[in-house]
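User: Hey, my collaborator sent me this sequence without any context and asked if I could get a structure. I don't really work with proteins. Can you help?
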Amino acid sequence: MDFEDKDILNQRLEPSPGVLYVVGTPIGNLGDLSPRAKSLLQKVSVIACEDTRHSGHMLKHVGAKATLLSFYQHNARHRLSQLLELLKGGESLALISDAGLPGISDPGETLIHAARKAGHNVICIPGPCAATTALVSSGLPCNRFCFEGFLPSKDKTRKELLARIADENRTTVIYESPHRLVKLLQELNQFCGAERPLQIARELTKLHEEQIGPTIGDALQHFLENKPIGECTLVLGGAPQHLETVQLSQQELVAEMKVLIAEGASSNDAAKAIAQKYGQSKRSLYSLLHDIKTNNGK
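Assistant: No problem. I've predicted the 3D structure and written it out in structure-token form, which is a compact way to encode the shape of the chain:
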């Protein structure tokens, strides 16, 4: 039996009774639903989803005929015991979100934890995820990153978290809704500075997918001029790693920029490189360099 035959056999053995299947669904493009996910959704007894109307369109498209039960933030506590009873009774249960992998910034995490605690097997059917999709396409470091999801709305908690994010050396992934995006960008601009690398992904996997950046300042300017539409995934570059104890004079900073310029860098690129190296403001360094050139008659 070759690999392909074994794969087909595995599909036929699923679903098993009393198992919770966490199924990744498309975040925009229906073509991203895997054959295994499609087969499972066609065969399970019950499907728990955030919005039965929203998911119903996708499930009808794949030919799923299971019983649909809503499971979202405001009914999670009430619905949880019912879903666990279904698993206990030997039903096969699939958990899906409106888009992407359940459990990532949605109440699915609660059901998964409860099912595990009750002794039920939980199997994840891999699928799309906005966080990792935006991350790998951002061009920012992916070897170490952290995920924050949606930031808290309470002012004190939010500011404390933003301060920690500003000092984080790893790439940070954040979710935000369109009507709150500009506010978040203004906060990031305040805490991280306009020159911090940032890519904002919207309409991922869809026809009009786009990335807006490459800095906080650029993204903020874009969305001040263009109304945000659709859920956004922000990929924020880590804080520049530099020795905080190193305090260079203006003359020393200018000297380092001049070395880069002598090697072929533009004044703008030189100011950006030294700003990132020492955690300085690119704008102030560029102005400093420009002032010295003007005073020297160059």
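In plain terms: The chain has a mean pLDDT of 89. You can pass these tokens on to your collaborator as they are.
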